[in-house]
């Protein structure tokens, strides 16, 4: 497997684990403005990681 694809996959898995661990805290913070900003940032980071993983895995074909 390509090193870039493997690194992107590892980062995606760590990010998913981080997101799941802090989800209860994040749900409580969504009532506050900066909690919404944090949630939006995490959602954009997840989309970015998904796109990076897609491009890295497409490069293996």
Regions with little confidence, pLDDT below 50 for 5+ residues: none
Give me the number of helical elements.
3
Largest sheet: none
Radius of gyration: 14 Å
Number of structural units classed as domains: 1
Fraction of residues in β-strands? under 5%
Q: Approximately how much helix is present in the residues?
A: over 70%
Q: What coarse outline follows from CA principal-axis ratios?
A: elongated
Structural class: mainly alpha
Average pLDDT figure: 80
Strand/helix succession: HHH
**Number of E-type strands:** 0
- End-to-end separation: 10 Å
What is the topological layout?
Elements: H1 3-21, H2 23-29, H3 33-58
Helix pairs in contact: 1-3, 2-3
Give structural notes.
The protein is an all-alpha fold. The protein has one domain. It has three helices and no strands. The protein has helices at 3-21, 23-29, 33-58. Helix 1 (3-21) packs antiparallel against helix 3 (33-58) and helix 2 (23-29) packs across helix 3 (33-58). The longest helix is centred in the last third of the chain and has 26 residues, at 33-58. The mean pLDDT is 80.
């Amino acid at each position: 497997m390509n090193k870039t694809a493997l690194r992107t996959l590892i980062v995606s898995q760590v990010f998913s684990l981080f997101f799941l661990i802090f989800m209860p805290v994040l749900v409580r913070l969504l009532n506050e403005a900066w909690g919404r900003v944090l949630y939006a940032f995490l959602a954009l980071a997840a989309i970015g990681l998904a796109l990076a993983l897609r491009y890295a895995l497409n490069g293996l074909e």
